[in-house]
Design a protein that fits this description.
The chain has 2 domains: 133 residues, Aspartate Aminotransferase, domain 1 (Alpha-Beta Complex), CATH 3.90.1150.10; 214 residues, Type I PLP-dependent aspartate aminotransferase-like (Major domain) (Aspartate Aminotransferase, domain 2), CATH 3.40.640. 39% of the residues lie in helices and 16% in strands. It has 15 helices and 13 strands. It is globular. The site of pyridoxal-5'-phosphate (PLP) has 14 residues, from helix 6.
């Protein structure tokens, strides 16, 4: 039999590609480590679970699972358009917002073209860029002693934009750092970009953030034809398992994104759940309140343990320790607590911890206390 070097057959962008590292699932931890009653604070999921309205809505959908979903997501797009005061033609639906980030790369990037993003940005931006053979231009993050340590440096991003740049990715707030950009400054930045550059503002955590500080980029769409805003139902809406997110943009951009979008990329349960979740204001309010109190609890608790906490406007905290995050992670796993080591981001002495319920926050703090004392 012939031996194949499959890697040689792969397109150049894929050859060196390292897949996204997800948080460890609870079932996997319990299988591998033989622990029980474990908790997961690793993937920024909502500790309150899914929006109850979404759960209620999908029950009525089960009998129709034999039918293909609505390929155009008519009702969800309609609701999103109303919510954001835009035309439904401005909406692109994704199997999670990860999906639309990949569409953006497929549509606007190719070998010889460039994407600009920050050091310590969301891991999907470099993956999507590399996948299509484009070049990443990475702006160093703000220094550790800055008021917004490890955050995006808008000037540094701007300086990396050149004639071959097609996309700039900015997350506000950012993952894995939790840091944020002032809305006015970000808006000026978007306005300063030349017309051959599309600016993607990823607002995955926007429901948790205070909009008077961070702004709401979806309200700038009328002003900037080169702005794309991405949102997700995975975080505050508690629907990570269903995979649904979206992009808002000029209809011209949405038209291009929809050309590469697989027809049935968002399943029927996801369409129905997302549509219902958008009306679940009470759930979002409760989620925000729990997150705000948990942020204080976890933040003060971590500082009391000697960790240094990076300011966060999201539903997680990035904390710096005096030892390798990977070692702490390993010990936490044995105690049944899953958090996120971030060595793959170049943040070796850090852990990213999702804000949980008050009991979950207390549990991770207690486990860390024991580990750090031993
Ligand atoms: C979680 C996250 C997403 C959303 O992922 P989904 O694919 O919608 O689940 C997008 N951007 C950032 C910065 C995130 O942290």
């Amino acid at each position: 039999m012939k031996t194949y070097d499959y890697n040689e057959l792969a397109v150049p962008g894929v050859r060196e590609l390292k897949p996204y590292t997800p948080g460890k699932p609870i079932a996997e931890l319990e299988r591998e480590y033989g622990v029980r009653d474990s908790i997961k604070l690793a993937s920024n999921e909502n500790p309150l679970g899914a929006s109850p309205r979404a759960l209620e809505a999908i029950r009525g959908e089960l009998d129709d699972l034999w039918l293909y979903p609505d390929a155009n997501g008519y009702f969800l797009k309609q609701t999103l358009a109303e919510r954001h005061g835009v035309d439904p033609a401005c909406v692109t639906l994704g199997n999670g917002s990860n999906d639309v980030l990949v569409f953006l790369a497929q549509v606007f990037l190719a070998p010889g073209l460039e994407a600009v993003f920050s050091q310590y940005c969301f891991a999907v931006y470099p993956i999507a860029t590399q996948m299509v053979g484009a070049t990443a231009k990475v702006a160093p993050a703000l220094p550790r002693d800055h008021v917004m340590p490890l955050g995006h440096d808008l000037r540094g991003l701007y300086e990396r934009v050149g004639p071959d740049t097609r996309l700039v990715f900015v997350a506000n707030p950012n993952n894995p750092t939790g840091t944020w950009l002032d809305g006015h400054r970000l808006k000026d930045f978007v306005g300063s970009l030349p017309p051959h550059v599309i600016c993607v503002v990823d607002e995955a955590y926007t429901e948790y953030a205070e909009s008077d500080r961070l702004g709401d980029a979806s309200t700038w769409l009328h002003e900037f034809p080169n702005l794309v805003v991405t949102r997700t139902f995975s975080k505050a809406y508690g629907l990570a398992g269903l995979r649904v997110g979206y992009a808002l943009s000029n209809p011209g951009v949405a038209d291009l994104l929809n050309r590469v979008r697989p027809a049935f990329n968002v399943n029927s349960l996801a369409l129905t759940a997302a549509n219902a979740a958008l009306g679940d204001h009470d759930f979002i309010e409760r989620s925000r309140a729990l997150n705000a109190s948990g942020m204080r609890q976890l933040g003060t608790g971590l500082e009391a343990l000697g960790a240094r906490v990076i300011p966060s406007a999201a539903n997680f905290i990035l904390a710096e320790f005096d030892q390798a995050g990977a070692d702490l992670d390993e010990k936490l796993l044995r105690a049944g607590v899953i958090v996120r080591p971030v060595g793959n981001y170049g943040l070796d002495n850090y852990l990213r911890i999702t804000i949980g319920t008050s009991a979950q926050n207390a549990r991770v703090l207690a486990a860390l206390k024991t580990i750090l004392a031993s």
